[in-house]
Amino acid sequence: MTDAHILTIEGLTVGYGSIRVLEDVSLNIPEGRITAVVGPNGAGKSTLLHALAGTAPVQAGRVLFGGQDIVGLAPYQRSRRGIMRTFQMPADFGRLTVLENLLLADRSVGGTGFAQVFTRPRRSWLPGQREAVARARKLLAEFGLEAKENDYMGDLSGGQRRILELLRAVTTEPRMLLLDEPFAGVHASIIERISDFLVQLRDRGISILMVAHELDAVERLTDAVVVMARGQVLFEGSMAAARREKEVVDAYVAG
Ligand SMILES: Nc1ncnc2c1ncn2[C@@H]1O[C@H](COP(=O)(O)OP(=O)(O)O)[C@@H](O)[C@H]1O
Ligand SMILES: [Mg+2]
Protein backbone atom coordinates (compact mmCIF):
# COMPACT_ATOMS: atom_id res chain seq x y z
CA MET A 1 0.00 0.00 0.00
CA THR A 2 1.25 3.47 -0.81
CA ASP A 3 -1.03 5.10 1.70
CA ALA A 4 0.08 7.81 4.02
CA HIS A 5 0.10 6.69 7.63
CA ILE A 6 -1.72 8.65 10.28
CA LEU A 7 -0.19 6.57 13.04
CA THR A 8 3.15 4.82 13.27
CA ILE A 9 3.70 2.63 16.32
CA GLU A 10 7.26 1.56 17.03
CA GLY A 11 8.28 -1.04 19.60
CA LEU A 12 5.35 -0.31 21.89
CA THR A 13 5.54 -2.20 25.15
CA VAL A 14 2.79 -1.84 27.74
CA GLY A 15 2.56 -3.50 31.11
CA TYR A 16 1.04 -3.32 34.54
CA GLY A 17 3.82 -3.90 37.03
CA SER A 18 5.48 -7.15 36.04
CA ILE A 19 2.60 -8.14 33.72
CA ARG A 20 3.47 -7.50 30.08
CA VAL A 21 0.34 -6.88 28.04
CA LEU A 22 1.82 -5.58 24.78
CA GLU A 23 5.24 -6.75 23.70
CA ASP A 24 7.21 -4.71 21.19
CA VAL A 25 4.25 -3.85 18.93
CA SER A 26 5.03 -2.05 15.68
CA LEU A 27 2.30 -0.99 13.26
CA ASN A 28 1.46 1.49 10.54
CA ILE A 29 -2.14 2.67 10.45
CA PRO A 30 -3.26 4.14 7.09
CA GLU A 31 -4.77 7.59 6.94
CA GLY A 32 -8.39 8.09 5.89
CA ARG A 33 -9.31 4.44 6.21
CA ILE A 34 -11.04 2.03 8.55
CA THR A 35 -8.60 -0.41 10.15
CA ALA A 36 -9.91 -3.31 12.23
CA VAL A 37 -8.05 -4.86 15.14
CA VAL A 38 -9.10 -8.48 15.64
CA GLY A 39 -7.93 -11.38 17.75
CA PRO A 40 -8.94 -13.59 20.66
CA ASN A 41 -9.97 -12.29 24.07
CA GLY A 42 -7.03 -11.16 26.12
CA ALA A 43 -4.90 -10.46 23.03
CA GLY A 44 -4.30 -6.88 24.12
CA LYS A 45 -6.62 -5.10 21.66
CA SER A 46 -8.26 -2.83 24.23
CA THR A 47 -4.87 -2.18 25.81
CA LEU A 48 -3.52 -1.05 22.44
CA LEU A 49 -6.36 1.48 22.16
CA HIS A 50 -5.77 2.61 25.74
CA ALA A 51 -2.09 3.10 25.03
CA LEU A 52 -2.91 5.23 21.99
CA ALA A 53 -5.40 7.31 23.96
CA GLY A 54 -2.95 7.77 26.81
CA THR A 55 -4.64 5.62 29.44
CA ALA A 56 -2.29 2.63 29.66
CA PRO A 57 1.26 2.53 31.07
CA VAL A 58 3.73 2.57 28.19
CA GLN A 59 7.09 1.07 29.18
CA ALA A 60 8.87 1.48 25.87
CA GLY A 61 8.31 2.58 22.30
CA ARG A 62 7.02 5.50 20.30
CA VAL A 63 3.65 6.45 18.86
CA LEU A 64 3.93 8.92 16.03
CA PHE A 65 0.65 10.69 15.28
CA GLY A 66 0.92 13.02 12.32
CA GLY A 67 4.69 12.56 12.62
CA GLN A 68 5.00 13.57 16.30
CA ASP A 69 5.57 11.27 19.26
CA ILE A 70 2.54 11.47 21.56
CA VAL A 71 3.62 8.91 24.18
CA GLY A 72 4.36 11.55 26.79
CA LEU A 73 1.09 13.42 26.29
CA ALA A 74 -1.94 13.29 28.59
CA PRO A 75 -5.22 11.98 27.15
CA TYR A 76 -6.72 15.48 26.81
CA GLN A 77 -3.64 16.69 24.94
CA ARG A 78 -3.96 13.79 22.54
CA SER A 79 -7.62 14.47 21.92
CA ARG A 80 -6.82 18.12 21.23
CA ARG A 81 -4.40 16.96 18.57
CA GLY A 82 -7.21 14.96 17.04
CA ILE A 83 -6.88 11.39 18.30
CA MET A 84 -10.08 10.58 20.18
CA ARG A 85 -11.65 7.56 21.75
CA THR A 86 -15.36 7.35 22.31
CA PHE A 87 -17.01 6.86 25.66
CA GLN A 88 -20.23 5.28 26.68
CA MET A 89 -22.49 7.97 28.00
CA PRO A 90 -23.28 7.85 31.70
CA ALA A 91 -26.90 7.03 32.46
CA ASP A 92 -27.52 10.56 33.76
CA PHE A 93 -27.05 11.92 30.28
CA GLY A 94 -30.27 10.16 29.38
CA ARG A 95 -32.12 13.09 30.87
CA LEU A 96 -30.54 15.46 28.40
CA THR A 97 -31.67 15.78 24.82
CA VAL A 98 -29.70 14.74 21.78
CA LEU A 99 -28.78 18.38 21.04
CA GLU A 100 -27.72 19.00 24.63
CA ASN A 101 -25.49 15.95 24.56
CA LEU A 102 -23.73 17.22 21.47
CA LEU A 103 -23.25 20.66 23.03
CA LEU A 104 -21.69 19.08 26.11
CA ALA A 105 -19.13 17.42 23.85
CA ASP A 106 -18.26 20.71 22.12
CA ARG A 107 -15.14 22.20 23.69
CA SER A 108 -16.08 25.74 22.79
CA VAL A 109 -19.24 25.47 24.89
CA GLY A 110 -17.54 23.75 27.83
CA GLY A 111 -16.99 25.05 31.31
CA THR A 112 -19.74 27.30 32.56
CA GLY A 113 -20.94 28.11 29.05
CA PHE A 114 -23.22 25.19 28.47
CA ALA A 115 -25.42 25.73 31.51
CA GLN A 116 -26.55 28.98 29.94
CA VAL A 117 -27.42 27.29 26.70
CA PHE A 118 -29.67 24.88 28.55
CA THR A 119 -31.28 27.23 31.01
CA ARG A 120 -31.60 30.56 29.25
CA PRO A 121 -33.87 31.62 26.42
CA ARG A 122 -32.29 31.38 22.99
CA ARG A 123 -32.27 35.17 22.60
CA SER A 124 -29.69 35.50 25.35
CA TRP A 125 -27.25 32.92 24.00
CA LEU A 126 -23.85 34.37 23.28
CA PRO A 127 -22.66 34.31 19.67
CA GLY A 128 -20.19 31.49 20.39
CA GLN A 129 -22.97 29.44 21.91
CA ARG A 130 -25.26 30.14 18.99
CA GLU A 131 -22.51 28.94 16.66
CA ALA A 132 -22.07 25.76 18.67
CA VAL A 133 -25.80 25.09 18.46
CA ALA A 134 -25.72 25.71 14.72
CA ARG A 135 -22.76 23.35 14.36
CA ALA A 136 -24.50 20.62 16.36
CA ARG A 137 -27.66 20.98 14.25
CA LYS A 138 -25.67 20.85 11.04
CA LEU A 139 -23.99 17.65 12.21
CA LEU A 140 -27.34 16.05 13.06
CA ALA A 141 -28.71 17.06 9.66
CA GLU A 142 -25.70 15.61 7.85
CA PHE A 143 -26.44 12.25 9.39
CA GLY A 144 -30.21 12.49 8.95
CA LEU A 145 -30.83 12.83 12.68
CA GLU A 146 -32.29 16.33 12.75
CA ALA A 147 -35.70 15.02 13.82
CA LYS A 148 -34.08 13.57 16.97
CA GLU A 149 -32.75 16.90 18.23
CA ASN A 150 -35.18 17.20 21.12
CA ASP A 151 -35.48 13.52 21.97
CA TYR A 152 -34.16 12.46 25.34
CA MET A 153 -31.10 10.28 25.13
CA GLY A 154 -32.74 7.87 27.52
CA ASP A 155 -35.52 7.25 24.98
CA LEU A 156 -33.19 6.31 22.12
CA SER A 157 -32.57 2.74 21.05
CA GLY A 158 -29.21 1.12 21.77
CA GLY A 159 -28.07 1.65 18.19
CA GLN A 160 -29.11 5.30 18.09
CA ARG A 161 -27.30 5.90 21.34
CA ARG A 162 -24.17 4.29 19.94
CA ILE A 163 -24.39 6.60 16.91
CA LEU A 164 -24.77 9.58 19.20
CA GLU A 165 -21.68 8.53 21.15
CA LEU A 166 -19.81 8.62 17.85
CA LEU A 167 -21.33 11.97 16.90
CA ARG A 168 -20.21 13.41 20.23
CA ALA A 169 -16.66 12.52 19.29
CA VAL A 170 -17.10 13.98 15.80
CA THR A 171 -18.17 17.29 17.35
CA THR A 172 -14.53 17.90 18.22
CA GLU A 173 -13.48 17.34 14.59
CA PRO A 174 -11.01 14.55 15.25
CA ARG A 175 -8.52 13.29 12.69
CA MET A 176 -8.67 9.81 14.10
CA LEU A 177 -11.19 7.81 16.13
CA LEU A 178 -10.38 4.85 18.38
CA LEU A 179 -13.40 2.57 18.77
CA ASP A 180 -13.47 -0.41 21.09
CA GLU A 181 -16.14 -2.82 19.91
CA PRO A 182 -18.61 -0.32 18.45
CA PHE A 183 -21.05 -3.12 17.61
CA ALA A 184 -21.02 -4.82 21.00
CA GLY A 185 -24.42 -5.12 22.60
CA VAL A 186 -26.40 -3.69 19.70
CA HIS A 187 -29.00 -5.65 17.78
CA ALA A 188 -27.79 -7.31 14.57
CA SER A 189 -30.10 -5.15 12.46
CA ILE A 190 -28.41 -2.03 13.83
CA ILE A 191 -24.89 -3.17 12.99
CA GLU A 192 -25.51 -2.18 9.40
CA ARG A 193 -26.65 1.31 10.38
CA ILE A 194 -23.59 1.84 12.51
CA SER A 195 -21.42 0.47 9.72
CA ASP A 196 -22.91 2.95 7.25
CA PHE A 197 -22.29 5.68 9.76
CA LEU A 198 -18.63 4.68 10.15
CA VAL A 199 -18.24 4.80 6.37
CA GLN A 200 -19.70 8.32 6.39
CA LEU A 201 -17.14 9.31 9.00
CA ARG A 202 -14.34 7.81 6.95
CA ASP A 203 -15.59 9.65 3.89
CA ARG A 204 -15.28 12.88 5.87
CA GLY A 205 -11.61 12.03 6.14
CA ILE A 206 -11.59 10.61 9.66
CA SER A 207 -9.21 7.67 10.11
CA ILE A 208 -10.74 4.92 12.23
CA LEU A 209 -9.04 2.22 14.27
CA MET A 210 -11.60 -0.17 15.70
CA VAL A 211 -11.62 -3.38 17.67
CA ALA A 212 -14.40 -5.65 16.43
CA HIS A 213 -15.44 -9.28 16.56
CA GLU A 214 -18.27 -9.22 14.03
CA LEU A 215 -16.72 -10.90 11.00
CA ASP A 216 -19.30 -9.79 8.45
CA ALA A 217 -19.10 -6.16 9.46
CA VAL A 218 -15.31 -6.25 9.56
CA GLU A 219 -15.16 -7.74 6.08
CA ARG A 220 -17.54 -5.18 4.65
CA LEU A 221 -16.09 -2.15 6.36
CA THR A 222 -12.41 -2.44 6.67
CA ASP A 223 -9.61 -1.54 4.37
CA ALA A 224 -6.87 -2.90 6.57
CA VAL A 225 -6.70 -5.40 9.37
CA VAL A 226 -4.41 -6.02 12.32
CA VAL A 227 -4.50 -9.46 13.91
CA MET A 228 -3.27 -9.67 17.49
CA ALA A 229 -2.68 -12.56 19.88
CA ARG A 230 -0.91 -12.73 23.23
CA GLY A 231 0.16 -9.10 23.15
CA GLN A 232 1.77 -9.28 19.74
CA VAL A 233 0.86 -8.49 16.15
CA LEU A 234 0.47 -11.64 14.04
CA PHE A 235 -0.53 -9.89 10.84
CA GLU A 236 -0.95 -6.44 9.40
CA GLY A 237 -2.24 -5.78 5.90
CA SER A 238 -5.23 -5.74 3.61
CA MET A 239 -8.34 -7.76 4.34
CA ALA A 240 -7.81 -9.76 1.15
CA ALA A 241 -4.27 -10.68 2.17
CA ALA A 242 -5.48 -11.68 5.64
CA ARG A 243 -7.96 -14.10 4.11
CA ARG A 244 -5.21 -15.78 2.10
CA GLU A 245 -3.16 -16.61 5.16
CA LYS A 246 -4.59 -19.62 6.92
CA GLU A 247 -2.83 -19.01 10.20
CA VAL A 248 -4.17 -15.48 10.31
CA VAL A 249 -7.71 -16.55 9.57
CA ASP A 250 -7.51 -19.22 12.27
CA ALA A 251 -6.40 -16.72 14.89
CA TYR A 252 -9.04 -14.31 13.71
CA VAL A 253 -11.87 -16.82 13.84
CA ALA A 254 -10.75 -17.93 17.29
CA GLY A 255 -11.48 -14.36 18.38
N1 LIG B 1 -5.37 -2.73 34.26
C1 LIG B 1 -4.83 -3.94 34.06
N2 LIG B 1 -4.06 -4.52 35.00
C2 LIG B 1 -3.53 -5.75 34.79
N3 LIG B 1 -3.72 -6.47 33.68
C3 LIG B 1 -4.47 -5.95 32.71
C4 LIG B 1 -5.07 -4.67 32.84
N4 LIG B 1 -5.77 -4.41 31.70
C5 LIG B 1 -5.62 -5.50 30.92
N5 LIG B 1 -4.84 -6.42 31.52
C6 LIG B 1 -4.48 -7.74 30.96
O1 LIG B 1 -3.99 -7.56 29.66
C7 LIG B 1 -4.41 -8.61 28.80
C8 LIG B 1 -5.04 -8.03 27.55
O2 LIG B 1 -6.26 -7.38 27.91
P1 LIG B 1 -7.12 -6.56 26.86
O3 LIG B 1 -6.28 -5.52 26.23
O4 LIG B 1 -8.34 -6.11 27.55
O5 LIG B 1 -7.44 -7.69 25.79
P2 LIG B 1 -8.56 -7.71 24.62
O6 LIG B 1 -9.17 -6.37 24.51
O7 LIG B 1 -7.82 -8.14 23.40
O8 LIG B 1 -9.55 -8.77 25.02
C9 LIG B 1 -5.34 -9.49 29.61
O9 LIG B 1 -4.62 -10.64 30.00
C10 LIG B 1 -5.69 -8.64 30.79
O10 LIG B 1 -5.89 -9.42 31.93
MG1 LIG C 1 -11.13 -5.71 24.73
Report the span from N to C terminus. 26 Å
The poorly predicted ranges are: none
Largest sheet: 6 strands, mixed
CATH superfamily of the largest domain: P-loop containing nucleotide triphosphate hydrolases
User: What is the name of the CATH architecture of the largest domain?
Assistant: 3-Layer(aba) Sandwich
CATH class of the largest domain: Alpha Beta
Strand order of the largest sheet: 6-7-8-3-9-10
Secondary structure category: alpha/beta
What string gives the helices and strands in order?
A: EEEHEEHEHHHHEHEHEEHH
What is the count of β-strands?
10
Shape: globular
Concise structural overview:
Helix content is 38%, strand content 25%. Helix 7 links the parallel strand 7 and strand 8.
Explain the overall architecture.
This protein is of the alpha/beta class. The chain has two domains: 1-82 and 174-255, Rossmann fold (3-Layer(aba) Sandwich); 87-173, 3-Layer(aba) Sandwich (Rossmann fold), CATH 3.40.50. It is 38% helix and 25% strand. It contains ten helices and ten strands. It has helices at residues 45-53, 75-81, 98-105, 113-119, 127-142, 158-170, 188-203, 215-221, 239-244, 246-254; strands at 5-16, 19-30, 34-38, 58-65, 68-69, 83-85, 176-180, 207-211, 224-229, 232-238. The strands form two sheets. It has a six-stranded mixed beta sheet, with helices on both faces. Strands 2-1-4-5 form a four-stranded antiparallel beta sheet, with helices on one face. Strand 4 and strand 5 form a beta hairpin. The radius of gyration is 19 Å and the shape is globular. The protein binds adenosine-5'-diphosphate and magnesium ion. Adenosine-5'-diphosphate binds at residues 16, 19, 21, 39, 41-47.
